[in-house]
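Quick one, T. Sequence first:
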Amino acid sequence: MKLSKKWLILPMAILVACSSDDSSPTTPADSAASQGDPTSSPSGDDNGGNGGENGGTVTVSLPSTANAAIPDAQYPIWKSLWVVSMKQEVDGGSTLDYAAFADYPNAMRVWWDNGDSKCEVTGMTKLDGKDFTSWMNTHTGCSVSEGIGYGMLIALFNGDRTTFNGLWDYNRGARALAPGNNKGLMPWQLVSFRRTLSTSAALDADLDIASSLILASYIWGDQAYLEDAKIIINDIYDRGINPENYLIYPAPNWKTKNVYNMSYFSPVAFRLFAMVDGAHPWNDVLNANYEYMKKVQDAGATQAIFPDWSNAAGEPADPLNNTATETYVMYFKESVRIPWRIAWDYYWYADERAGNILKKLGDFVVQKSGNDPANYPKVAYNYSTGAEASDCSFCGTTGEHYLGAACLSGFGVNTAWTDACTSYFNSFAMSTTAGYSGTYFKQILQMMYSSLLNGKFVKPNF
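Structure tokens:
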């Protein structure tokens, strides 16, 4: 371990994250209006949204069974299992060279439990008193940008500024390792606080990171968050948005693939970008992606679910990255994140388009479960046929994160379902015995969805 101790001053498909500290919030400087107009009015109070697409007034409320004590209890468990600081690794005996993050001694990261031998944190035998084996070091050594984006949103909405700043530091340290002048987008995969394994970006992560920074600038009144968000936003538009159709590239180096992932579409992100960046047509991007999503949803066999991957024409498409050869046509581990992103937009902005999407998804979920959340089939569905993926041995959808997505599918449009589903979802405690092998995705989404369903996604006073 070659980083001096003086640097280590330190004061984590049916699917499943705002309070502030004592800082006085201030409003970032107004920016010029973005090109294009949003189809819906981005207005509302702290508890939800109003202002439908056609000018009507809609109030979107939380489930009657929402209970903020649930995420309050889950958050420290999730954080203890999945968030680690550079200081913790060094104190635990790590022999890695941390010089690359010397400018960010308070950095924290979210573990990604993929079990890659290239990610081993060599030499670490302890973590806060817990014995660590080589197997555990191998399963906790990597981090991905997605986890940092999710983690920043979760920390923000659960009022943890220290962890938020630690994850932001990790994001900034990782971006400093990107090649050339491409410093806005975060490299997708890294080894601990040491080096990149992949310098490609994953755009959903960058959307979440920039969104969290904009929100933090309002909640905690620090302009530094906003200024960094603007750097990321500019790079997202220049490298991550197709200028011909305004759809989101999954990654900058995927521009020739003609394949898109609708779970990357974050309507709230584009509304926030339009609010602070007048140089780019973010409202046009918002509208184009909503139009695309409607096209795909209406063309499927169920007219409700989505494929994991699709092309510009809205047809299921293999991303050709060896991860979805059998599942790209399924409503599965990618597309099942859609309910969260759309429910968040509906809750804050009451966009009629969001409500329509959720209504169709919610009706599908209710029909498949017999209106009982405990009975929802734990299997993926084929977008093109509407059938269960019974011939796919690894297409199960067990886990609290899938259940949370089912609850969010009816958010604001089917109160009876969402009330019952949220109550059932809240009965599942955050596991304290995660094995760091295959549970990262489950628990980070459980934490995120729990925070939205139970009222932690409080909209700032913009």
